[in-house]
Amino acid sequence: MRRAVVALVRSAGYEACGFASAEEFLASGVVGNFACIITDIQMPGMSGVELKQHLSAIQCPVPVIMITARHDMDLEGKALASGAVCFLRKPFEADVLIGCLERALGR
C-alpha cells in the first residue's frame, strides 16, 4: 500500500517518499521537509494517530492525512480529533486521495 500511495502522489506531479514505520520517519531527520504527511492509522509500533499527536507535541505544522482499512466507527473521530486534515477508509479512489492532498496543501 505504501508503494502504491507514493506512486499515486508522484503521478499527480508531487515529490513523494515512503517510510516503513512512523519511527523510521521520525528518525530520518527530515520531518520538517515535507508539505504533507499521508499515514496509515494501523502500523507496527506507533499508530498514525500517535504520530500526529507526536508531531503536534513537537509543534510540527505539517498537515496529516490518515487512511485505514479498519471499520471501527470511532477511528474517524480519533483521527480528526488528533488534527488530521483528512480521513479515508480503504479502498478509496485515487482522485479522492489527491483531492485531500490538494486541500491539505491549500490548492
Describe this structure in words.
The protein is an alpha/beta fold and 107 residues long. The chain has helices at 2-11, 22-27, 48-57, 74-81, 94-104; strands at 37-40, 64-68, 86-89. It is 42% helix and 12% strand.
Task: Give a short overview.
The chain is α/β, with parallel strands linked by helices. Helices cover 42% and strands 12% of the residues.
The biggest beta sheet reads: 3 strands, parallel
Tell me, briefly, the overall form: globular
In angstroms, what is the radius of gyration?
13 Å
Poorly predicted regions = none
Secondary-structure element order, as H and E?
A: HHEHEHEH
Give the helix proportion (percent range). 40-55%
Alpha-carbon distance between the termini? 25 Å
Q: How are the strands of the largest sheet arranged? A: 1-2-3
Strand content: 5-15%
**What integer is the average pLDDT?**
94
What's the total helix number? 5
SS elements, strand count: 3
Which structural class do you get from the secondary structure elements?
A: alpha/beta
